[in-house]
What we know:
- The chain is built from 14 helices and 9 strands.
- The chain is α/β, with parallel strands linked by helices.
- It folds into 2 domains: 9-174, Rossmann fold; 181-307, N-(1-d-carboxylethyl)-l-norvaline Dehydrogenase, domain 2 (Orthogonal Bundle), CATH 1.10.1040.
- Strands 3-2-1-4-5-6 form a 6-stranded parallel sheet, with helices on both faces. The chain has a 3-stranded mixed sheet with strand order 7-8-9.
- The chain starts with 8 loop residues before the first strand and ends with a helix.
Amino acid sequence: MNTFAPLRVGFIGLGTMGLPMARNIARAGFPLTVSSRTLAKAEELAREFRGGKAHVAAARRPSDVATASDVIVSCVPDAPEVEEIHLGPAGTIRNARPGTVVVDCSTIAPSAARSIAARLEEAEVKFLDAPVSGGQKGAVEGTLTFFVGGEESAIERARPVFEAMGKRLTHLGPSGSGQLGKATNQVIVAGNLLAVAEGIAFAEAAGLPLAALHQALTAGAANSWALETLGKKMLDRDFLPAFAVKHQQKDLAIVLETARKNGIPLPGVALVHQLLSALEAAGEGDKGTQALLTLYEKLSPAARRATS
Length: 308
């Protein structure tokens, strides 16, 4: 990780993932300019580092971030927000100098990533679609994995910034490839979530000691990140959102639309999407994805009795 670097970095989007990612960039010694939909968030982060070795400044508009940056990182909910902050009336494209690299860590459709890249290229600004895996924990600890699409030269220019935020960067091809990599990740994540929720609901209904069972399962062939992390949250009845149902639904909608265009059937993903839709219909879209367990409990009298 670079302690001193000539690159000036901008960060746009200080949400659950973006805020800790921006903190890690500042801690790595990069001069950092930040912006968010709520200016107070950017100003609060700037105050957090005031008086220390890191220099963090708040900016009102994405265009102001671009003025002060060589590499700009964005992390926002979906494609309309990415388009607005980079291509809109106050977007980074207005003030970004030729050679600036935009690293977008949002999860959006591959087609949207390609379109944004083409528009920025007209201004001689390089765009990398670089969605992440690792969740809030990875964002805080600086251990994120990046799936990256775009030009190799742009990746190399931005590599020190990537290294401040994560541990693995994989270049998968031209623009849009990073989003396709993340979509693949979400296919597998969805399957793991389903398996863990079903397994724990089954064990509840059977009356097994869940804490002891969880220890046994995580030591054997059934183990996975989902079982270790989401399974433990299920047992603790912790349904707070490290990754919300509504955000997973957005990602799975992208997966299913991309699969449809490519003629690939994904029945497992479609099932998880429908089950999570039931949670959303019950007003639980803001809960963490581990809340899928509660749907099984509502469907199973035996599981409900076990948790009552």
